[in-house]
């Protein structure tokens, strides 16, 4: 097992995912790559590691690398209009250049344009996406271009008002990504999201499905957790208990390790985490009527007993109910595998408590 420190935290055994991305970027761009998975499963960390360590490498990356990479994380952006969308992606060229000189790739402004062009784009006198295309051609200068968009579901409800009715901004943006990949082979586009309801929308769109590939990043497997925690000098019986409560969720395991090293009682810590997950479940249940609460208990029973709940053939109203729990990040909704699980193992322990207290 390979464990290294990345940004001050352990980066644990992601060789399979790393090799997948390295191979993907080595090929000619053909499809949009959608990266999805449970909350805190490591999607953003893995892709950033691959870019920094394998694509750009150490040293003068802007001179030596064969890749030209741009990254934007929409998680902390408030995008409610075409203008705020534009300002998230495009910056005045002089401001953009200052950022390039000062910062590493992960904090760079996305695209820089001179102020005259930017003004014309805001007035709809120039096409935003055509200008981005020209910048990519100019700045990549023969290198393999890579665009990474994180938390794209922020854009799902945006529209452009253009005087001729409404045109969906997100769809126009995704069509632009298709043009970058499948049509021109100019640039890889990687889109990350933990919102699998949004992934389902893409997966069920015949046109987008044909031009997309999907990569699931999951929590660590059992054997990976055991090998890691044995390196941490934790006893086997304690690792069994940790796996039972936390599964392969790296952030939760790191939280446990911090408490463990401070001398906290392991079993008490794990039971407290499960109880907190239970209270989160119970609190959200209060938003629903009794028939839906009973349905949730049926779901919880199957997840506890089988490890998953099948969503194959469920009714529309049941799907909407499950999607609400996925949006709440208590359940993980996988539209490609047609399964529901806990967003992490601790929520499944919370479901066990629910069934013990309110009957199966």
Automatic annotation (TrEMBL):
GO terms for molecular function: ATP binding. Residues 11-255 form the ATPase domain. Gene3D superfamilies: P-loop containing nucleotide triphosphate hydrolases. Pfam families: ATPase_2. InterPro entries: Archaeal_ATPase_domain, ATPase_dom, P-loop_NTPase. It comes from the Bacteria. This is ATPase domain-containing protein. It comes from Thermodesulfatator autotrophicus.
